[in-house]
Amino acid sequence: MHVRRRLAPSQRRAALQVLALLLCGATALAAPARNVSFVVDGLPLHYYQAELLLFSLRVFGQQPRDSVLVHVTPTVAPEFLEWLASGGYAYRTIKPVLGRGRHLNKLAQLAAFAEPGALPPGGGVFLLDADTFVLQPLAPPCADAVCAKVVDTSNPPIRVIQSLLAAAGVPEPAQVPSDCSDIPTFAPNVNGGYYYVPAGLAGRVAAAWLARAQWLVDNSRRVLAGFPAQEQRAAVYHTDQLAMLMAVAGDGVPLSTVPANLNFPLHFACSPASYDAARP
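Predicted structure:
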């Protein structure tokens, strides 16, 4: 299970103290098989979230340090990079994709795993948000499709997505209820906080995802000109999410939806319909 949480200041201090003790004296290993990735921007909140995520990956996820690749933007402070290196974590600097910065960071990190041989045959990569917290070891949920959870709420609204799909010539996929409400969305509209991409699909997914993101960057402002400003901003903010939807619906990228057990929201009151109480 991977959750997003907000902690009180006292809890934050305690977590960071434990984290410092656990990371003290760690060293990196050569030629690792990395299969977990997330992005850190140059924001104090991101540094804190990254520390908690790395702590949870190591302690609860039993994830070796050298299996994690932290992607950082050019605005990240040198002190944070030094902290990563001293803890045995590899990092890779990425540049904004298509001029959209953090709205397309997921695409930038997948590129590191899309090259032939970057992932072992039969393996894959978990692309996580920095504000996730892992509670058990990560296990591939499927072997032949991108795995992700349907969005918590219909955001962007379905009518915004319908306009973009029509303008791009992409057929509308099936509609399903959002995971935390009865408001409909499209089945491939999945939450970007947790993706699993199998090795055999990484190159195909990266190419289709980037092409659809390029189309959105070039056309979404024109297509949505008559929509309220709030809905236009939602489309821009979720560019990577919409690009994945279009890659699935328009380019045949296989998608398998996973239950909220693997990506459970705690940043607002929600009882996800996909949560299965009988499984971890």
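Summary: The CA atoms of residues 177 and 184 lie 4 Å apart.
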